[in-house]
Amino acid sequence: MGTPLHLAVALDGTGWHPASWREPLARPAETLSPRYWMDLVGQAEQGLLDFVTIEDGLTLQSDHPFRADNRTDRVRGRLDAVLIASRVAPRTHHIGLVPTVITTYTEPFHASKAIATLDYVSTGRAGVRVQVASRRDAAAHFGRRHLPEDRTAVSAELFAEADEYVEVLRRLWDSWEDDAEIRDVATGRFIDRNKLHYIDFEGVSFSVKGPSITPRPPQGQPIVAALGHVDPAYRLIAGSADVGFVTPHSAEEVTALVDTVAAPRPADAPAVRVFADLVVFLDGTLDAARARRGRLDELAGTQYRSDAEIFVGTPAQLADLLEAWHTAGASGFRLRPASIPHDLQQITDVLVPDLQRRGLFRQSYEASTLRGLLGLPRPANRYTTV
């Protein structure tokens, strides 16, 4: 009987393989409909997953990470991730909702209000995945900044900005004390003005007065997550995130990456929950999974590649890998379904029961908030004086 692991799925269109929309069970005509997203998140909740992340961006999707590709045979176009999460929230009851927010061109004041609102409409199940945008076609939409030519310099600058961004988010969420709202009809006092606080943040990238216009969220501070590939991103995870997504390709890399993001963590801070990302092609047999990947690659006209490990096999074989990587130090796993709904159903209907039989996954939801599911305490308010 092992220590239970955490499990999430990353939702993006019809799946992470660029030809997934051409699969027989795919629903490409519905990706802009509320029903589609409610079905996907509902399926994930049936599998007792900790949370879903919802991808977003400021440019059309592209096979190339740093520029447009002008392909017309791929899924292009998406809805706003925060609004998807807000639409889905009232139709779910337990699963965490973690939309992506682009820190590079989105003001932290606006994001703090949106995620606080999501925490209210989901009754404490909100998070946010912060992501930077370094593509020049994204910058062209805004015309407000010039990015350095050196990609290393761009990375360092944008992740330093993201670190400030998260600090502003947390301060704004704390800018109302938990009991700031009195709502006393007899005296006519709705709020205690002494329990609303200026945050007076002055940084390199942001100057924010505060307070927020939204009362402190149910979780105190919704979960903050980030994906790490490079040192500046690892520093962001270590210093600012509750959950870090990493992309190891072996158990040894899992241990090394956990050490990388855990070492700089303050001693009195809760440990960051490190999730290993994997793209998954899951079928009843290894041959079937390989054949499906081959068919999708042929449709796409190129072999699928990813920053994350690409797993091709059966749910039982994946459970073996997750168990080994969990032993190596991963708190949990964020699985990227190669095609939806097929691989999502394999996760919830086959992988999860296997993990449960091994004592590695919950039998039911045991907490009412996302922080509770992840074993993270509700943070104290930095501005409370009494």
From TrEMBL:
UniProt keywords, alphabetically: Flavoprotein, FMN, Monooxygenase, Oxidoreductase
Keyword Oxidoreductase: yes
Segments forming domain Luciferase-like: 28-296
InterPro entries, A to Z: Diverse_substr_monoxygenases, Luciferase-like_dom, Luciferase-like_sf, NTA_MOA
Domain of life: Bacteria
Pfam families per record: Bac_luciferase (PF00296)
UniProt-annotated binding residues for FMN: 56, 100
GO MF, one example: monooxygenase activity
Family: Belongs to the NtaA/SnaA/DszA monooxygenase family.
UniProt protein name: FMNH2-dependent monooxygenase
Phylogenetic lineage: Bacteria, Bacillati, Actinomycetota, Actinomycetes, Mycobacteriales
